Amino acid sequence: MPLRSVRTRIAPSPTGEDIHIGTLQTALINMAVARKNKGKFIIRIEDTDRVRLVEGAEKKYLQTLKSYNITHDEGPDIGGKYGLYRQSERLELYKKHALELIKKRVAYYCFCSMERLVELREKQIKEKMHTRYDKHCLLHVKDVEERINRNESYVIRLNVVPDKKIVFDDLIRGQITIASNEIDDQVLLKSDGFPTYHLAVVVDDHYMEITHIIRGEEWISSTPKHILLYEAFGWDLPLFAHTPLLRNPDKSKLSKRKNPVWASWYIKEGFLPEVMLNFLALLGWSHPEEKEIFPLDEFIDLFKLEEIKPVGPIFDLVKLKWMNQQYIQNKSDEDLKKLIIDFSPDAKNIPDQTLSKLMPLLKSRMETLVDFAKLTGIFFDKFGEQSFNQEEKDIASSLVNDLSKIKDWKNDTIFNIIKASMVLNKLKMPVFYKIFTGETRGLPLPETLEILGQEKSIKRLKEVLGK
RNA sequence: GCCGCGUUCGUCUAGUGGCCUAGGACACUUGGUUUUCAUCCAAGGAAUCAGGGGUUCGACUCCCCUACGCGGUACCA
Q1: Could you give the ipTM of this predicted complex?
Q2: Interhelix angle for A445-452 vs A454-466, to 10°?
Q3: Global pTM?
Q4: DSSP letter at A217?
Q5: CB-strand contact A293/B, under 7 Å
Protein backbone atom coordinates (compact mmCIF):
# COMPACT_ATOMS: atom_id res chain seq x y z
CA MET A 1 0.00 0.00 0.00
CA PRO A 2 1.59 3.30 -1.06
CA LEU A 3 1.95 5.98 1.57
CA ARG A 4 -1.09 8.19 1.33
CA SER A 5 -2.48 10.55 3.85
CA VAL A 6 -5.35 9.00 5.70
CA ARG A 7 -8.84 9.89 4.53
CA THR A 8 -11.96 8.38 6.07
CA ARG A 9 -15.61 8.99 5.48
CA ILE A 10 -19.13 8.28 6.45
CA ALA A 11 -21.66 8.06 3.68
CA PRO A 12 -25.13 8.28 5.14
CA SER A 13 -28.18 7.82 3.01
CA PRO A 14 -30.79 10.50 3.74
CA THR A 15 -33.65 8.07 4.05
CA GLY A 16 -34.48 8.43 7.73
CA GLU A 17 -35.63 10.97 10.25
CA ASP A 18 -32.21 11.52 11.66
CA ILE A 19 -28.75 10.01 12.03
CA HIS A 20 -28.99 6.51 13.46
CA ILE A 21 -27.11 5.99 16.69
CA GLY A 22 -25.09 3.26 14.96
CA THR A 23 -24.11 5.66 12.22
CA LEU A 24 -23.02 8.05 14.94
CA GLN A 25 -20.71 5.39 16.31
CA THR A 26 -19.30 4.68 12.86
CA ALA A 27 -18.82 8.42 12.39
CA LEU A 28 -16.95 8.63 15.69
CA ILE A 29 -14.62 5.83 14.67
CA ASN A 30 -14.02 7.28 11.23
CA MET A 31 -13.30 10.67 12.69
CA ALA A 32 -10.98 9.18 15.28
CA VAL A 33 -8.96 7.31 12.66
CA ALA A 34 -8.62 10.46 10.58
CA ARG A 35 -7.64 12.71 13.49
CA LYS A 36 -5.28 10.17 14.93
CA ASN A 37 -3.37 10.03 11.67
CA LYS A 38 -3.64 13.73 10.98
CA GLY A 39 -5.83 12.90 8.02
CA LYS A 40 -9.20 14.08 6.82
CA PHE A 41 -12.71 12.99 7.68
CA ILE A 42 -15.31 13.39 4.99
CA ILE A 43 -19.09 13.30 4.88
CA ARG A 44 -20.64 12.23 1.63
CA ILE A 45 -24.36 12.04 1.08
CA GLU A 46 -25.49 8.90 -0.71
CA ASP A 47 -28.81 10.03 -2.06
CA THR A 48 -29.16 7.61 -4.93
CA ASP A 49 -32.36 6.01 -3.72
CA ARG A 50 -34.91 8.45 -5.04
CA VAL A 51 -37.83 6.46 -3.70
CA ARG A 52 -36.83 6.40 -0.05
CA LEU A 53 -35.32 9.87 -0.02
CA VAL A 54 -36.58 11.94 2.90
CA GLU A 55 -36.99 15.66 2.43
CA GLY A 56 -34.78 17.61 4.80
CA ALA A 57 -32.96 14.53 6.08
CA GLU A 58 -29.55 15.67 4.90
CA LYS A 59 -29.83 18.95 6.75
CA LYS A 60 -30.99 17.18 9.89
CA TYR A 61 -28.14 14.66 9.70
CA LEU A 62 -25.56 17.40 9.41
CA GLN A 63 -27.08 19.29 12.31
CA THR A 64 -27.15 16.27 14.54
CA LEU A 65 -23.57 15.34 13.77
CA LYS A 66 -22.56 18.87 14.60
CA SER A 67 -24.44 18.79 17.88
CA TYR A 68 -22.37 15.75 18.83
CA ASN A 69 -19.19 17.54 17.93
CA ILE A 70 -18.48 15.17 15.09
CA THR A 71 -16.77 17.58 12.74
CA HIS A 72 -15.81 16.90 9.17
CA ASP A 73 -13.18 18.40 6.91
CA GLU A 74 -15.06 18.04 3.65
CA GLY A 75 -18.72 17.60 2.93
CA PRO A 76 -21.79 18.83 1.05
CA ASP A 77 -22.19 21.83 3.34
CA ILE A 78 -18.58 23.01 3.41
CA GLY A 79 -17.24 21.66 0.12
CA GLY A 80 -13.70 20.46 -0.38
CA LYS A 81 -11.15 19.75 -3.04
CA TYR A 82 -12.63 16.48 -4.14
CA GLY A 83 -15.63 17.80 -5.95
CA LEU A 84 -19.25 17.45 -5.04
CA TYR A 85 -20.15 15.51 -1.94
CA ARG A 86 -23.67 14.56 -2.86
CA GLN A 87 -24.04 11.58 -5.16
CA SER A 88 -27.05 12.96 -6.98
CA GLU A 89 -24.72 15.66 -8.28
CA ARG A 90 -22.20 13.22 -9.71
CA LEU A 91 -24.36 11.17 -12.02
CA GLU A 92 -22.23 11.76 -15.11
CA LEU A 93 -19.21 10.33 -13.37
CA TYR A 94 -20.98 7.09 -12.51
CA LYS A 95 -22.42 6.74 -15.97
CA LYS A 96 -19.02 7.22 -17.51
CA HIS A 97 -17.58 4.50 -15.34
CA ALA A 98 -20.46 2.15 -15.97
CA LEU A 99 -19.80 2.51 -19.68
CA GLU A 100 -16.13 1.91 -19.13
CA LEU A 101 -17.03 -1.38 -17.48
CA ILE A 102 -19.23 -2.30 -20.44
CA LYS A 103 -16.30 -1.65 -22.73
CA LYS A 104 -14.13 -3.86 -20.57
CA ARG A 105 -16.86 -6.49 -20.64
CA VAL A 106 -17.00 -6.48 -16.86
CA ALA A 107 -20.56 -5.25 -17.09
CA TYR A 108 -23.42 -5.63 -19.51
CA TYR A 109 -26.76 -4.11 -20.43
CA CYS A 110 -29.88 -5.75 -19.13
CA PHE A 111 -33.36 -5.11 -20.47
CA CYS A 112 -35.25 -7.53 -18.27
CA SER A 113 -38.54 -6.29 -16.91
CA MET A 114 -39.33 -6.25 -13.21
CA GLU A 115 -41.94 -8.89 -13.92
CA ARG A 116 -39.39 -11.22 -15.40
CA LEU A 117 -37.04 -10.69 -12.45
CA VAL A 118 -39.76 -11.37 -9.92
CA GLU A 119 -40.85 -14.46 -11.80
CA LEU A 120 -37.28 -15.70 -12.01
CA ARG A 121 -36.74 -15.20 -8.32
CA GLU A 122 -39.94 -16.99 -7.38
CA LYS A 123 -39.05 -19.90 -9.57
CA GLN A 124 -35.62 -20.15 -7.99
CA ILE A 125 -37.06 -20.03 -4.51
CA LYS A 126 -39.51 -22.75 -5.42
CA GLU A 127 -36.72 -24.94 -6.73
CA LYS A 128 -34.62 -24.13 -3.67
CA MET A 129 -31.94 -22.59 -5.83
CA HIS A 130 -29.96 -19.45 -5.06
CA THR A 131 -31.89 -16.39 -6.07
CA ARG A 132 -29.72 -14.82 -8.66
CA TYR A 133 -29.94 -13.12 -12.04
CA ASP A 134 -29.52 -15.70 -14.79
CA LYS A 135 -27.37 -13.59 -17.16
CA HIS A 136 -30.16 -13.79 -19.70
CA CYS A 137 -29.32 -10.46 -21.31
CA LEU A 138 -25.61 -11.18 -21.40
CA LEU A 139 -26.14 -14.49 -23.14
CA HIS A 140 -29.12 -13.89 -25.39
CA VAL A 141 -29.50 -10.24 -26.29
CA LYS A 142 -27.64 -9.38 -29.48
CA ASP A 143 -29.30 -6.14 -30.58
CA VAL A 144 -28.19 -3.99 -27.69
CA GLU A 145 -27.50 -0.82 -29.67
CA GLU A 146 -30.83 -0.93 -31.40
CA ARG A 147 -32.77 -1.43 -28.22
CA ILE A 148 -31.01 1.46 -26.54
CA ASN A 149 -31.68 3.65 -29.57
CA ARG A 150 -35.30 2.64 -29.37
CA ASN A 151 -35.24 4.18 -25.90
CA GLU A 152 -35.86 0.90 -24.20
CA SER A 153 -35.32 1.01 -20.49
CA TYR A 154 -32.19 -0.76 -19.30
CA VAL A 155 -29.86 -1.28 -16.36
CA ILE A 156 -26.18 -2.07 -16.33
CA ARG A 157 -25.15 -5.18 -14.45
CA LEU A 158 -21.86 -6.42 -13.11
CA ASN A 159 -20.73 -9.57 -14.89
CA VAL A 160 -19.51 -11.77 -12.08
CA VAL A 161 -17.24 -14.59 -13.23
CA PRO A 162 -18.13 -17.84 -11.48
CA ASP A 163 -15.87 -20.16 -9.49
CA LYS A 164 -13.50 -17.57 -8.15
CA LYS A 165 -12.60 -16.86 -4.58
CA ILE A 166 -12.50 -13.29 -3.43
CA VAL A 167 -10.32 -12.77 -0.40
CA PHE A 168 -9.83 -9.61 1.55
CA ASP A 169 -8.41 -8.51 4.85
CA ASP A 170 -10.68 -6.88 7.33
CA LEU A 171 -8.85 -4.82 9.92
CA ILE A 172 -11.26 -5.95 12.61
CA ARG A 173 -12.00 -9.54 11.54
CA GLY A 174 -8.96 -10.72 9.68
CA GLN A 175 -9.15 -12.56 6.40
CA ILE A 176 -12.57 -13.04 4.84
CA THR A 177 -13.18 -15.29 1.85
CA ILE A 178 -16.30 -15.26 -0.26
CA ALA A 179 -16.89 -17.30 -3.41
CA SER A 180 -17.87 -15.39 -6.54
CA ASN A 181 -20.66 -17.93 -6.95
CA GLU A 182 -22.30 -16.25 -3.97
CA ILE A 183 -22.44 -12.92 -5.72
CA ASP A 184 -25.28 -11.86 -7.94
CA ASP A 185 -24.83 -9.92 -11.17
CA GLN A 186 -25.58 -6.81 -9.22
CA VAL A 187 -27.19 -3.82 -10.91
CA LEU A 188 -24.68 -0.98 -11.07
CA LEU A 189 -26.66 1.61 -12.95
CA LYS A 190 -30.41 1.74 -12.45
CA SER A 191 -32.92 2.45 -15.17
CA ASP A 192 -33.47 5.95 -13.78
CA GLY A 193 -29.84 6.73 -14.52
CA PHE A 194 -28.83 6.68 -10.87
CA PRO A 195 -26.08 4.35 -9.75
CA THR A 196 -26.65 1.77 -7.07
CA TYR A 197 -24.64 1.96 -3.89
CA HIS A 198 -22.11 -0.53 -5.17
CA LEU A 199 -20.98 1.50 -8.16
CA ALA A 200 -21.24 4.90 -6.53
CA VAL A 201 -19.37 3.95 -3.40
CA VAL A 202 -16.43 2.53 -5.30
CA VAL A 203 -16.16 5.41 -7.74
CA ASP A 204 -16.46 8.02 -5.01
CA ASP A 205 -14.14 6.36 -2.55
CA HIS A 206 -11.56 6.13 -5.30
CA TYR A 207 -11.82 9.72 -6.50
CA MET A 208 -12.06 11.05 -2.99
CA GLU A 209 -8.94 9.04 -2.18
CA ILE A 210 -10.50 7.32 0.78
CA THR A 211 -7.89 5.12 2.45
CA HIS A 212 -9.97 3.38 5.11
CA ILE A 213 -13.46 2.14 4.51
CA ILE A 214 -14.94 1.81 7.97
CA ARG A 215 -18.58 0.85 7.92
CA GLY A 216 -21.12 -1.45 9.54
CA GLU A 217 -20.86 -5.22 9.26
CA GLU A 218 -23.96 -5.38 7.10
CA TRP A 219 -21.58 -4.52 4.26
CA ILE A 220 -19.31 -7.50 4.59
CA SER A 221 -21.07 -9.56 2.00
CA SER A 222 -21.10 -6.67 -0.46
CA THR A 223 -17.40 -6.04 -0.19
CA PRO A 224 -16.43 -8.64 -2.81
CA LYS A 225 -18.59 -6.81 -5.35
CA HIS A 226 -16.69 -3.67 -4.60
CA ILE A 227 -13.36 -5.43 -4.86
CA LEU A 228 -14.34 -6.75 -8.27
CA LEU A 229 -14.98 -3.18 -9.33
CA TYR A 230 -11.70 -1.87 -7.96
CA GLU A 231 -9.94 -4.61 -9.87
CA ALA A 232 -11.83 -3.93 -13.08
CA PHE A 233 -10.91 -0.27 -12.94
CA GLY A 234 -7.33 -1.08 -12.02
CA TRP A 235 -7.51 0.96 -8.81
CA ASP A 236 -5.68 0.43 -5.54
CA LEU A 237 -7.77 -1.20 -2.87
CA PRO A 238 -8.53 0.78 0.27
CA LEU A 239 -8.33 -0.82 3.72
CA PHE A 240 -11.56 -2.35 4.99
CA ALA A 241 -12.91 -2.48 8.53
CA HIS A 242 -16.43 -3.66 9.32
CA THR A 243 -17.68 -2.58 12.71
CA PRO A 244 -20.14 -4.67 14.69
CA LEU A 245 -23.79 -3.71 14.67
CA LEU A 246 -25.39 -2.32 17.80
CA ARG A 247 -28.14 -4.59 19.12
CA ASN A 248 -31.46 -4.40 20.91
CA PRO A 249 -31.64 -6.11 24.32
CA ASP A 250 -32.96 -9.21 22.52
CA LYS A 251 -29.80 -9.13 20.37
CA SER A 252 -31.55 -8.26 17.16
CA LYS A 253 -30.16 -5.39 15.12
CA LEU A 254 -30.86 -2.11 16.90
CA SER A 255 -34.18 -0.89 15.62
CA LYS A 256 -36.50 1.99 16.29
CA ARG A 257 -39.31 -0.31 17.29
CA LYS A 258 -37.36 -1.53 20.30
CA ASN A 259 -35.05 1.32 21.16
CA PRO A 260 -34.70 5.01 20.49
CA VAL A 261 -32.27 5.04 17.56
CA TRP A 262 -32.24 8.62 16.38
CA ALA A 263 -29.17 10.37 17.64
CA SER A 264 -30.87 13.67 18.45
CA TRP A 265 -33.36 11.91 20.73
CA TYR A 266 -30.63 11.45 23.33
CA ILE A 267 -29.77 15.12 23.28
CA LYS A 268 -33.42 15.97 23.69
CA GLU A 269 -33.52 13.65 26.70
CA GLY A 270 -30.70 15.54 28.35
CA PHE A 271 -27.71 13.37 27.59
CA LEU A 272 -24.49 15.24 27.00
CA PRO A 273 -22.96 14.79 23.55
CA GLU A 274 -19.54 13.98 24.92
CA VAL A 275 -21.07 11.32 27.15
CA MET A 276 -22.64 9.61 24.18
CA LEU A 277 -19.30 9.63 22.39
CA ASN A 278 -17.56 8.21 25.44
CA PHE A 279 -20.23 5.56 25.76
CA LEU A 280 -20.16 4.65 22.08
CA ALA A 281 -16.37 4.42 22.23
CA LEU A 282 -16.75 1.76 24.90
CA LEU A 283 -19.14 -0.35 22.88
CA GLY A 284 -16.71 -2.69 21.20
CA TRP A 285 -13.51 -1.16 22.46
CA SER A 286 -11.94 -0.76 25.86
CA HIS A 287 -9.47 1.69 27.29
CA PRO A 288 -6.01 0.14 27.80
CA GLU A 289 -6.15 1.08 31.50
CA GLU A 290 -9.75 -0.07 31.69
CA LYS A 291 -10.87 3.50 32.28
CA GLU A 292 -14.55 4.08 31.75
CA ILE A 293 -14.57 7.83 31.60
CA PHE A 294 -12.24 9.65 29.25
CA PRO A 295 -12.43 12.59 26.87
CA LEU A 296 -12.61 12.39 23.10
CA ASP A 297 -8.98 13.44 22.66
CA GLU A 298 -7.83 10.56 24.79
CA PHE A 299 -9.91 8.16 22.75
CA ILE A 300 -8.44 9.50 19.52
CA ASP A 301 -4.99 9.16 20.96
CA LEU A 302 -5.26 5.63 22.31
CA PHE A 303 -7.75 3.96 20.05
CA LYS A 304 -6.68 1.43 17.43
CA LEU A 305 -9.03 0.11 14.79
CA GLU A 306 -7.60 -3.38 15.17
CA GLU A 307 -8.67 -3.41 18.81
CA ILE A 308 -12.36 -3.18 18.07
CA LYS A 309 -14.13 -6.40 18.99
CA PRO A 310 -16.13 -8.01 16.21
CA VAL A 311 -19.05 -8.76 18.53
CA GLY A 312 -22.28 -6.80 18.30
CA PRO A 313 -22.92 -5.19 21.70
CA ILE A 314 -26.31 -4.49 23.21
CA PHE A 315 -27.07 -0.81 23.40
CA ASP A 316 -28.12 -0.49 27.03
CA LEU A 317 -29.22 2.84 28.44
CA VAL A 318 -28.50 2.01 32.09
CA LYS A 319 -24.79 2.56 31.90
CA LEU A 320 -25.27 5.59 29.68
CA LYS A 321 -27.32 7.21 32.45
CA TRP A 322 -24.69 6.48 35.02
CA MET A 323 -22.04 7.97 32.79
CA ASN A 324 -24.12 11.07 32.15
CA GLN A 325 -24.52 11.54 35.90
CA GLN A 326 -20.76 11.22 36.36
CA TYR A 327 -20.07 13.85 33.74
CA ILE A 328 -22.62 16.24 35.20
CA GLN A 329 -21.14 15.77 38.63
CA ASN A 330 -17.70 16.62 37.35
CA LYS A 331 -18.75 19.85 35.64
CA SER A 332 -17.89 23.18 37.20
CA ASP A 333 -20.86 25.13 38.53
CA GLU A 334 -20.54 27.62 35.73
CA ASP A 335 -20.43 24.99 33.00
CA LEU A 336 -23.36 23.13 34.40
CA LYS A 337 -25.35 26.32 34.63
CA LYS A 338 -24.69 27.06 30.98
CA LEU A 339 -25.73 23.58 30.00
CA ILE A 340 -28.92 23.88 31.98
CA ILE A 341 -29.82 27.26 30.53
CA ASP A 342 -29.23 26.01 27.00
CA PHE A 343 -31.29 22.95 27.70
CA SER A 344 -34.19 24.51 29.57
CA PRO A 345 -34.47 28.21 28.75
CA ASP A 346 -37.03 28.52 31.56
CA ALA A 347 -34.10 28.47 33.91
CA LYS A 348 -33.50 32.11 33.00
CA ASN A 349 -36.73 32.99 34.76
CA ILE A 350 -35.03 32.56 38.09
CA PRO A 351 -32.29 35.01 39.05
CA ASP A 352 -28.82 34.09 37.92
CA GLN A 353 -27.45 34.19 41.46
CA THR A 354 -30.14 31.85 42.67
CA LEU A 355 -29.37 29.52 39.82
CA SER A 356 -25.68 29.55 40.72
CA LYS A 357 -26.43 28.64 44.31
CA LEU A 358 -28.46 25.67 43.15
CA MET A 359 -25.65 24.09 41.17
CA PRO A 360 -23.85 22.33 44.02
CA LEU A 361 -27.15 20.86 45.20
CA LEU A 362 -28.10 19.71 41.74
CA LYS A 363 -24.87 18.11 40.65
CA SER A 364 -24.99 14.76 42.34
CA ARG A 365 -28.70 14.45 41.75
CA MET A 366 -29.03 14.94 38.03
CA GLU A 367 -28.84 11.96 35.77
CA THR A 368 -29.79 13.94 32.70
CA LEU A 369 -30.45 17.61 32.05
CA VAL A 370 -34.16 16.84 32.12
CA ASP A 371 -33.82 16.34 35.87
CA PHE A 372 -33.22 20.03 36.42
CA ALA A 373 -36.89 20.78 35.90
CA LYS A 374 -37.91 17.80 38.00
CA LEU A 375 -35.78 18.89 40.96
CA THR A 376 -36.47 22.59 40.97
CA GLY A 377 -40.25 22.73 40.69
CA ILE A 378 -40.59 24.85 43.82
CA PHE A 379 -38.68 27.65 42.09
CA PHE A 380 -41.19 27.67 39.27
CA ASP A 381 -44.32 27.28 41.40
CA LYS A 382 -44.70 23.76 40.14
CA PHE A 383 -45.53 21.17 42.74
CA GLY A 384 -46.20 17.46 42.86
CA GLU A 385 -48.96 16.20 45.13
CA GLN A 386 -51.28 19.06 45.98
CA SER A 387 -53.65 17.70 48.58
CA PHE A 388 -52.79 17.71 52.23
CA ASN A 389 -54.29 16.09 55.30
CA GLN A 390 -54.97 17.80 58.60
CA GLU A 391 -51.75 16.72 60.21
CA GLU A 392 -49.74 18.16 57.33
CA LYS A 393 -51.64 21.39 57.52
CA ASP A 394 -51.04 21.63 61.26
CA ILE A 395 -47.34 21.22 60.72
CA ALA A 396 -47.36 23.79 57.94
CA SER A 397 -49.13 26.15 60.25
CA SER A 398 -46.60 25.79 63.04
CA LEU A 399 -43.78 26.10 60.53
CA VAL A 400 -45.20 29.39 59.28
CA ASN A 401 -45.02 30.58 62.83
CA ASP A 402 -41.54 29.41 63.60
CA LEU A 403 -39.95 30.20 60.26
CA SER A 404 -41.32 33.70 60.32
CA LYS A 405 -39.36 34.37 63.49
CA ILE A 406 -36.02 33.57 61.90
CA LYS A 407 -33.82 36.62 61.67
CA ASP A 408 -30.88 34.93 60.06
CA TRP A 409 -32.32 32.94 57.12
CA LYS A 410 -29.71 30.22 56.78
CA ASN A 411 -29.99 26.53 56.20
CA ASP A 412 -28.88 25.55 59.69
CA THR A 413 -31.38 27.84 61.40
CA ILE A 414 -34.06 26.55 59.08
CA PHE A 415 -33.00 23.00 59.76
CA ASN A 416 -33.18 23.50 63.51
CA ILE A 417 -36.80 24.42 63.22
CA ILE A 418 -37.64 21.55 60.93
CA LYS A 419 -35.76 19.20 63.20
CA ALA A 420 -37.63 20.42 66.25
CA SER A 421 -40.88 19.75 64.45
CA MET A 422 -39.61 16.33 63.37
CA VAL A 423 -38.82 15.37 66.93
CA LEU A 424 -41.97 16.86 68.40
CA ASN A 425 -44.28 15.15 65.90
CA LYS A 426 -42.18 12.00 65.53
CA LEU A 427 -41.95 12.50 61.79
CA LYS A 428 -39.37 11.91 59.14
CA MET A 429 -38.02 14.20 56.49
CA PRO A 430 -40.21 13.10 53.58
CA VAL A 431 -43.26 14.59 55.26
CA PHE A 432 -41.62 18.00 55.17
CA TYR A 433 -40.66 17.49 51.55
CA LYS A 434 -44.23 16.85 50.70
CA ILE A 435 -45.40 19.97 52.44
CA PHE A 436 -42.98 22.21 50.60
CA THR A 437 -42.64 20.58 47.20
CA GLY A 438 -45.38 18.05 46.88
CA GLU A 439 -42.66 15.45 46.42
CA THR A 440 -41.23 13.05 48.98
CA ARG A 441 -37.65 13.41 47.91
CA GLY A 442 -35.47 15.99 46.28
CA LEU A 443 -32.77 18.55 46.92
CA PRO A 444 -31.73 19.07 50.56
CA LEU A 445 -34.65 20.97 52.02
CA PRO A 446 -33.08 23.58 54.32
CA GLU A 447 -30.57 24.56 51.65
CA THR A 448 -33.31 24.80 49.10
CA LEU A 449 -35.40 26.99 51.35
CA GLU A 450 -32.43 29.18 52.10
CA ILE A 451 -31.98 29.76 48.39
CA LEU A 452 -35.68 30.19 47.80
CA GLY A 453 -35.85 32.87 50.49
CA GLN A 454 -37.86 33.37 53.63
CA GLU A 455 -40.73 35.21 52.03
CA LYS A 456 -41.35 32.67 49.32
CA SER A 457 -40.94 29.73 51.64
CA ILE A 458 -43.58 31.04 53.95
CA LYS A 459 -45.84 31.97 51.08
CA ARG A 460 -45.68 28.38 49.96
CA LEU A 461 -46.68 27.14 53.41
CA LYS A 462 -49.65 29.45 53.45
CA GLU A 463 -50.76 28.03 50.13
CA VAL A 464 -50.67 24.60 51.68
CA LEU A 465 -52.93 25.80 54.46
CA GLY A 466 -55.45 26.91 51.91
CA LYS A 467 -55.59 23.56 50.13
C1' G B 1 -32.22 -22.84 2.30
C1' C B 2 -27.34 -20.92 1.03
C1' C B 3 -23.09 -17.73 2.28
C1' G B 4 -20.54 -14.74 5.83
C1' C B 5 -19.53 -13.00 10.78
C1' G B 6 -19.85 -13.92 15.88
C1' U B 7 -20.35 -16.67 21.07
C1' U B 8 -16.16 -14.75 28.71
C1' C B 9 -20.83 -12.63 34.95
C1' G B 10 -27.91 -9.87 33.54
C1' U B 11 -25.14 -5.81 30.43
C1' C B 12 -20.34 -3.43 28.55
C1' U B 13 -15.76 -5.74 28.72
C1' A B 14 -10.08 -7.50 30.39
C1' G B 15 -7.72 -11.73 28.68
C1' U B 16 -3.22 -13.04 22.20
C1' G B 17 -0.75 -20.88 25.65
C1' G B 18 1.25 -21.15 32.05
C1' C B 19 0.36 -14.59 36.01
C1' C B 20 -7.12 -17.12 35.56
C1' U B 21 -9.42 -21.41 41.71
C1' A B 22 -11.11 -15.61 35.14
C1' G B 23 -9.97 -9.07 36.51
C1' G B 24 -12.73 -4.21 36.01
C1' A B 25 -17.25 -1.17 35.14
C1' C B 26 -22.71 -0.74 35.12
C1' A B 27 -26.83 -2.98 37.45
C1' C B 28 -28.16 -5.71 41.98
C1' U B 29 -27.69 -6.91 47.59
C1' U B 30 -25.71 -5.47 52.35
C1' G B 31 -23.20 -2.06 55.55
C1' G B 32 -20.99 3.00 56.60
C1' U B 33 -21.50 8.52 56.01
C1' U B 34 -26.20 11.42 55.97
C1' U B 35 -31.36 16.04 57.10
C1' U B 36 -35.28 13.08 52.41
C1' C B 37 -33.15 11.65 47.78
C1' A B 38 -28.64 11.38 45.73
C1' U B 39 -23.31 11.50 46.01
C1' C B 40 -19.20 9.19 48.32
C1' C B 41 -16.84 4.80 50.78
C1' A B 42 -16.65 -0.48 51.95
C1' A B 43 -18.16 -5.47 51.36
C1' G B 44 -20.88 -9.32 48.66
C1' G B 45 -23.35 -12.51 45.17
C1' A B 46 -22.93 -13.12 39.98
C1' A B 47 -19.34 -16.40 34.10
C1' U B 48 -18.18 -25.13 34.78
C1' C B 49 -14.99 -18.80 29.39
C1' A B 50 -21.96 -21.86 24.27
C1' G B 51 -21.34 -27.61 23.93
C1' G B 52 -18.23 -31.61 22.15
C1' G B 53 -13.81 -33.28 20.13
C1' G B 54 -8.66 -32.55 19.07
C1' U B 55 -3.31 -30.11 19.24
C1' U B 56 -0.08 -29.37 23.64
C1' C B 57 3.51 -31.05 29.47
C1' G B 58 -0.38 -27.19 29.84
C1' A B 59 -6.09 -23.86 26.43
C1' C B 60 -10.67 -18.76 27.79
C1' U B 61 -6.55 -18.28 24.41
C1' C B 62 -4.73 -22.62 18.43
C1' C B 63 -7.66 -26.32 15.01
C1' C B 64 -12.29 -29.07 13.77
C1' C B 65 -17.50 -30.22 14.44
C1' U B 66 -22.30 -29.02 16.52
C1' A B 67 -25.70 -25.55 18.59
C1' C B 68 -27.31 -20.78 18.95
C1' G B 69 -27.36 -15.45 17.59
C1' C B 70 -26.65 -11.73 14.02
C1' G B 71 -25.89 -10.03 9.03
C1' G B 72 -26.37 -10.73 3.71
C1' U B 73 -28.98 -13.09 -0.12
C1' A B 74 -33.05 -6.06 -4.17
C1' C B 75 -33.12 -1.41 -10.26
C1' C B 76 -32.36 -0.23 -0.64
C1' A B 77 -28.49 1.58 1.42
Answers
A1: 0.96
A2: 110
A3: 0.95
A4: G
A5: no
